[in-house]
Amino acid sequence: EAGVAQSPRYKIIEKRQSVAFWCNPISGHATLYWYQQILGQGPKLLIQFQNNGVVDDSQLPKDRFSAERLKGVDSTLKIQPAKLEDSAVYLCASSTLFVGKSDTQYFGPGTRLTVL
Amino acid sequence: AQTVTQSQPEMSVQEAETVTLSCTYDTSENNYYLFWYKQPPSRQMILVIRQEAYKQQNATENRFSVNFQKAAKSFSLKISDSQLGDTAMYFCAFMKPRSNYGGSQGNLIFGKGTKLSVKP
Lengths: 116, 120
Prior knowledge:
By secondary structure, chain A is mainly beta. Chain A is 0% helix and 47% strand.
């Protein structure tokens, strides 16, 4: 079974530029998460999708971050314009939709973003 | 709001020895899940072990076991017979179970991590 795929693995941009990250979850996984991991910290949830609907985007900086999962499969996270403090690893995770059971999240390899 | 605290920023252990990583959490929930994830330099988050709060028996996975103390809100990870490949960041994480109606339950709340080095 293929794991969660992410691209690119690395990205370096200047501040005020835009950037987009792509994630393809494990086949059949209805729930998709985007996390931001700043150096020295644990990941923090940015947005959670269930199929193609947003479940939780309360911690997404909506003035500059946007995300979509149009067909309920792969997802794109965009930052426009980027700030220095956006330098981080962006992790995508997916899980099945088993209500009431422990639904383990499986993570992709992440994208390391450096904003200069 | 739930919080997860890992009080040991760094630890080291000799190969083949045993090490215990600490984690405490704060929640008013009665039902929840706890996880330990490993993140090697490749950045891939790998699930090590998970524990359902309603289960009194401590979870074990080969060389990895937990000491879950629900009343004390403590969830430590023991690694036996440490191997060089165990060198990584270890994150403790909390999750409320997802409700029938979705919502924010289901997202993981992570601690800041413990950097474990296994020395030959």
